[in-house]
Amino acid sequence: MTTRVIIVDDQAMVRAGFAALLAAQSDIDVVGDAPDGVQGVELSRRVHPDVVLMDVRMPEMDGLEAARQLLDPPIGVTHRPKVLMLTTFDVDDYVYEALRAGASGFLLKDAPPADLISAVRIVAAGEALLAPSVTRRLIADFARQRPAPRRSRASLRLNGLTPRETEVLELIARGLSNQEIADALVLAEQTVKTHIGRVLAKLELRDRAQAVIFAYESGLVAPGER
User: Fold this and answer.
1) Which residue in 9, 14, 13, 53 sits closest to 30, CA to CA?
2) Cα 123–132–217 angle (5° rounding)?
3) What is the pTM of this model?
4) What does the alpha-carbon distance between residue 48 and residue 24 come to, in Å, rounded to a whole number?
């Protein structure tokens, strides 16, 4: 199955370079590009991509607002693409806010070409791009600067999880992969996937990215803990 992608970035050379790299893959089809968030939103709603590569900082409308509009569209608009944020900074509050809005992760613009290709495939498959340690640092730094109250509505929602599901959520928030969680809890990887699915369903979260943020905001995981 081919993954349809659009690239939204204010640098023409970045758009051209990413488009050439992705279009060379047999399972990825680049169906358009745009130089700012306004045109990116319009293009996405017209061509219905599976994945939007979205620059964080752009004129007219930045990537954060564009991601919000795509992931929380007005009544009558049903298409919701996966959004992968692109940034030149390894710690950026805008990226954290984009994850809160429902983006599936972020990638540094200077990442190796193989990482970009892999990121598109991961996000298209419904996973969140949260494995890199830089992402864990991003969220931990933001949480440290803006600690959430431990007795919050989010913390009360934890009561709906079983002890095992709570353990799995905590390990997701620490950046562990499915296999690493399986090893830590002595479970089969498929069992871990089942637990993750139940956690997301019970907490009404889109993906692992939102699960990580929920874990910090609910107080389940505190910044700096290991």
Assistant:
1) 53
2) 85
3) 0.70
4) 20
